[in-house]
User: What shape does this take?
Amino acid sequence: MRLGVLDVGSNTVHLLVVDAYQGARPVPAFSHKAEFRLGDHLDAANRLTQDSAMQLRDFVDEALRIAEDKGVQELLAFATSAVRDAANADEFLAWIQAETRVDIRVLPGPDEAGRRGGCSCSTSAADRWRSRPASTRSPAPLSPCPWARAG
Assistant: This one.
């Protein structure tokens, strides 16, 4: 299965397209990333700025076009500390979802910390997805196929 993993990190936003097979490590097929430094886009009230939301929305739209072109069947999207620690994280992610229909989940701190040690967050997420039984790979934590969105 072709899986897309969108990693919204503190410094970069990364779309990793992998081929994921039961019982095997995901095989990277394509990578697209941009440096946003979301952690630098916090105002005095520790809120992510509108400019950062617009930049992220544009990247997510671009990532969706790439995912469609690369044959991605499911997209897993998550954010790490820059979003998790922002005072307006829920509002920020709700706006991104309303604009793009991509549900970006916040990765809990312990999960993010556990990924350090040479393995990217995107690859770790693909590994966790692959290791789950097929019956638990429900659409709940995954975004719908973006090209199926209305309008």
In short: The longest strand covers residues 27-35. The beta strands are 2-8, 12-19, 27-35, 74-79, 105-106. The chain has a mean pLDDT of 81. Residues 2-148 form a domain with the Nucleotidyltransferase; domain 5 fold (CATH 3.30.420.40).
